[in-house]
């Protein structure tokens, strides 16, 4: 931390220290706890997305009975924050938040590159499993998204997301996790529960209404679209979105929130910290995004079987990698 707190801008040092401690604890979690906490975070974000579709579907600009783009976006954004509020108050491990929180632990010397990689792999895997489970619940379990307007809106959202160019998806991912982690930062700085809810709600409302891309939310939205469309949307297309959005989320959360506040509080060895971030991001993307994308591509010729086989194999792969990386620490 900074040697002289009187030189720290905006009194960020206290919040940096709190975030760093939280991130350090996250890196020490056992694989089973990390995966379970990640599962819950993916599920909570999915609940928020389901709620958002139910609340806004009638105003979808092309499919709704009362088409109004602005109202559709406002309602979608207004109720979606219930997911992150549940993550923060309920206690769960969301990978997009770890792009900020756990990297702060690394920059303050409380965690290593391997610690960050372990947490990222475990939380991302858990988020994926939780998201896919909620996709199954929404489409096949409850039938809520299996027909009618909700299904049409869901598939429309899925088609939009997989059609994004990598360049656009990258920048939409950066903007998204910038705001998500501003919400987390404000949540930690707030002093009471009501204040924490309010300061979390506004940035999340903004990112959804603007139309930014959140990798974990997209895990639910696109996988649910795959199920609801009977495979018309594929897992290969899923990764067309997830690869650039994940990279963008990591950059947005780290650079514009975690690194920024750490730099105000300390800032020593900044170049080294940037290089270390690039290293861990490259390893993470290769292990948890590119290899699963290769699995999806390899199994794409199996038709409808791939709809179920791909998420199953990727889930098992992620769990195994979590345990292997933990053992290597």
TrEMBL record:
<keyword id="KW-0813">Transport</keyword>
<feature type="transmembrane region" description="Helical">
    <location>
        <begin position="169"/>
        <end position="188"/>
    </location>
</feature>
<dbReference type="GO" id="GO:0005886">
    <property type="term" value="C:plasma membrane"/>
</dbReference>
<dbReference type="InterPro" id="IPR023271">
    <property type="entry name" value="Aquaporin-like"/>
</dbReference>
<keyword id="KW-0472">Membrane</keyword>
<comment type="function">
    <text>May act as a formate transporter.</text>
</comment>
<dbReference type="GO" id="GO:0015513">
    <property type="term" value="F:high-affinity secondary active nitrite transmembrane transporter activity"/>
</dbReference>
<feature type="transmembrane region" description="Helical">
    <location>
        <begin position="34"/>
        <end position="59"/>
    </location>
</feature>
<dbReference type="GO" id="GO:0015707">
    <property type="term" value="P:nitrite transport"/>
</dbReference>
<feature type="transmembrane region" description="Helical">
    <location>
        <begin position="116"/>
        <end position="140"/>
    </location>
</feature>
<feature type="transmembrane region" description="Helical">
    <location>
        <begin position="71"/>
        <end position="95"/>
    </location>
</feature>
<feature type="transmembrane region" description="Helical">
    <location>
        <begin position="200"/>
        <end position="222"/>
    </location>
</feature>
<feature type="transmembrane region" description="Helical">
    <location>
        <begin position="277"/>
        <end position="299"/>
    </location>
</feature>
<keyword id="KW-0812">Transmembrane</keyword>
<dbReference type="Pfam" id="PF01226">
    <property type="entry name" value="Form_Nir_trans"/>
</dbReference>
<comment type="similarity">
    <text>Belongs to the FNT transporter (TC 1.A.16) family.</text>
</comment>
<protein>
    <recommendedName>
        <fullName>Probable formate transporter</fullName>
    </recommendedName>
</protein>
<feature type="transmembrane region" description="Helical">
    <location>
        <begin position="305"/>
        <end position="325"/>
    </location>
</feature>
<feature type="transmembrane region" description="Helical">
    <location>
        <begin position="242"/>
        <end position="265"/>
    </location>
</feature>
<dbReference type="InterPro" id="IPR000292">
    <property type="entry name" value="For/NO2_transpt"/>
</dbReference>
<keyword id="KW-1133">Transmembrane helix</keyword>
